Amino acid sequence: DAMVIQNPRYQVTQFGKPVTLSCSQTLNHNVMYWYQQKSSQAPKLLFHYYDKDFNNEADTPDNFQSRRPNTSFCFLDIRSPGLGDAAMYLCATSRAETSGIYFGPGTRLTVT
Amino acid sequence: AQSVSQHNHHVILSEAASLELGCNYSYGGTVNLFWYVQYPGQHLQLLLKYFSGDPLVKGIKGFEAEFIKSKFSFNLRKPSVQWSDTAEYFCAVNSPGTYKYIFGTGTRLKVLA
Description:
The complex is a heterodimer.
Chain A: E1 4-7, E2 10-13, E3 19-25, E4 31-37, E5 44-50, E6 53-56, E7 64-67, E8 73-78, E9 87-94, E10 101-103, E11 107-111
Parallel strand pairs in A: 2-11
Antiparallel strand pairs in A: 1-3, 3-8, 4-5, 4-9, 5-6, 7-8, 9-10, 9-11
Chain B: E1 4-5, E2 10-14, E3 19-21, E4 24-25, E5 32-38, E6 45-50, E7 56-58, E8 64-68, E9 73-78, E10 87-94, E11 102-103, E12 107-112
Parallel strand pairs in B: 2-12
Antiparallel strand pairs in B: 1-4, 3-9, 5-6, 5-10, 7-8, 8-9, 10-11, 10-12
């Protein structure tokens, strides 16, 4: 089945220790997204790619970076995680603006 | 900037009761509207969407939503809920020509058997 895959599903990192979250898709969608979701809050868009064009949200901290080496893969790098960065990180893809977006299962990040 | 409001944060219903979850958005131009559902332990899934045409749209599992432009609303409805509808429901919006999807804070629905 075509899908959005996130690895790992659970990630524990130490305060200040860089961490990378991975996402891959078999849907061949042009657009890939990273959302941050904290408990009882809306998923918050961090950035998205249209093909290789990167679109950063104005309020996304500089601590968060992303890479998309090809259509299928996208990475979220958190350079110096703080306790406030503990959250669920959702990767998603989209084919068209009217199609909706397809989410992966998420990676739950814990910062100790 | 666009925003989406879901005023009901928690809803508890008995099976067979009717459901209506509110969603209002702030953007005054043309929008595409979506409802997503997240069942316990599962990822977010598209329930239904509206981008043009009949303002009453039908989705999976008996859900429907009505777009009322004058009220900036896209409320989700189901005539008779089931225990299996227990989930969190998110409303989302994007503007034509963009690929940014903005989500509401969600409504947790609990259906009592």
